[in-house]
């Protein structure tokens, strides 16, 4: 009877989302250009979240030279964690957006703006869900702690430092994925390839993409000190322009999407290399790079040509999918052309196997390489009691049946033990993270708030230790 009464009280206790206040707070967050590489903007977004939390009545702390913030309530033998981030990927070309990227827009029953889905909107929804615990903080059996990161879209140095210096939550979730519970998450790899840059009395600059984890929507080559006769070879290229400074630029345009789903986008780096593939008599300086992309990556999203289409597609009875791979950034330095390869690997494909595959190709194409980021496949057993609490909350608030599924992207869930990605998108929603016109349905975000509030109530007042269970 005690548990039944507790659930009835918790259900009655939390309120409907205050839409006007929520919109005001979200608008304030979206307006901050907290692109990961912009320290000033990221710090401003972090302190805005902490200010909102403090105004609600939480204890708040900025840690590690403003790289991480903590918003918390309650006490107990266990700590429930909510991992969020306030940094965002670049907006790219504003002209490709129908709505201003750093201004909250409501249209077509949706929120638009960079970060409304990844991850400012869900972070704010989770904070509002936490706020429903405030009247009962002295009765809680658990501590609830929101950890706000600032480098999720890039290095994760913030979480690495936090994990090294702070006491971690026992379990929890990040609202940076999809419903139902994504207890499995593909791995993440960035491999940086360096092709030597040779000068022959003329200059070639390559550039493409602006984020390692986004399919690039632009790529270009800029040529200078080329004769008109040589440049005439490119005149059948529709995207060639002659600039006032005497240089010539060839551009390729694509469609940006999250790099975990490259099949939904159009890769501008691949398009540019395909265009240049037939012009290599003019451009021998970039031949190795162009041929590598054309032969090893074009029309092959699964790493088959590289020998990386391996690993387990089924693990513990769940779908683990397959590895996907794409070039995402292209840059020119004083002595190299640098190509970033982004991978989302299935379970069983190891770092040593990835290194061996690129080592073999390096001998063929003359590049050097470095694995600059590697995160393994994530799996958390569905038998964990805290996941069962989350499953019950999801079913209770949505009327849908819970399931345990694979996330194709990567999230802060990998940063700490016993974490999963959970919401905000529902299965029928279109995921527009990292895309132009990033958006999320208003009702989706409000429904996520209700699910989070119910789950936090159930976990915070449950007298059991919820970390147990068999892996």
TrEMBL record:
UniProt EC number: 3.4.13.-
Keyword annotations from UniProtKB, A to Z: Dipeptidase, Hydrolase, Metal-binding, Metalloprotease, Protease, Zinc
Pfam (any one): Peptidase_M20
InterPro entries: Bact_exopeptidase_dim_dom, M20A_pepV-rel, Peptidase_M20, Peptidase_M20A
Entry keyword Protease: yes
Single GO MF descriptor: dipeptidase activity
Cofactor(s) the record lists: Zn(2+)
Protein family (similarity comment): Belongs to the peptidase M20A family.
PANTHER family: ACETYLORNITHINE DEACETYLASE, N-ACETYL-L-CITRULLINE DEACETYLASE
Listed NCBIfam families: dipeptidaselike
Listed name of the protein: Sapep family Mn(2+)-dependent dipeptidase
Organism placement in taxonomy: Bacteria, Bacillati, Bacillota, Clostridia, Eubacteriales
